[in-house]
Amino acid sequence: MGPRVGRTMDRMPSRHSATLEDFLAIPEELRFHELLAAELVEKATPSGEHGGAQSSVVGAVLPAYQRRKGVGGPGGWWIATEVEVLLPTGDLVRPDVLGWRRETSAERPVGTPVRVRSDWICEIVSPSNANTDTVKKLRIYHQAQVPHYWIVDPRDLTLTVMRWQEAGYLALLRAERGETVSPEPFSEISLAIGTLFGDDVD
Predict the structure, then answer these.
(1) pLDDT single digits (tens) 27-76
(2) pTM, full prediction
(3) Cα atoms in the Cβ-side hemisphere of radius 13 Å centred on 97
């Protein structure tokens, strides 16, 4: 690898003693990482299944909830994908899909990283680092008091919907292919779980 502007990959800090400064020193074109509990974690390369599920979540939520008034829904949210967010815990994450309520964030969150904690996060599990989404990030998001956390898992074709409580996330539902749900906090949509995994809408 030839020289690049900023810190090169062979000079990166120890994975387990990284700081925000270390993270931001990675050139943007190489920065496919997250800073989780002082550890630099590289995000898995998205598979076709991952990309399809991500776009399906956006397609289900965005029309009804984006901006002040949605289409077929109440609106009231800012919805985004792959945005770097600095959490109050000091962790820096890059969720697959996330959203902010306009009542708590009147202006669209901007900048890199965004410094406004989101109200909803959805992660699509990648088989190569499933533990990150189902254990590490679950703990971090709970510590940061992210109100709503979804996990879409292409391995078993499920959606898990969780709500923050002080003792830990409360699993409100775990739905599988063939079911249709109205998942919190977007209870005015009807989400056919199979559409997250490539099924057509009947």
Answers:
(1) 888 888 999 999 999 888 888 999 999 999 999 999 999 978 877 789 99
(2) 0.88
(3) 25
What mean pLDDT comes out for the span 80-92? Answer: 96
d(C-alpha 129, C-alpha 39), whole Å:
14
- Peptide bond before residue 109 is cis, with ω within 30 degrees of 0: no
Query: Distance between CA atoms of 185 and 172, rounded to whole angstroms?
Result: 11
Q: Which amino acid is at 100?
A: W
CA nearest to 99, candidates 132, 73, 131: 73
pLDDT tens for each residue of 147-179: 999 999 999 999 999 999 999 999 999 999 999
DSSP assignment, residue 4?
-
Side by side, the strands of the sheet bearing 170-176 are 77-81, 97-101, 120-124, 148-153, 158-163, 170-176
Residue corresponding to tokens 């029309």: 63
User: Domain residue spans in the chain?
Assistant: 46-197
Torsion, CA 99, CA 153, CA 92, CA 80, rounded to 10: -30
Q: Which CATH architecture has domain 46-197?
A: Alpha-Beta Complex (3.90)
| CB-based contact 90:70 (threshold 8 Å) | no
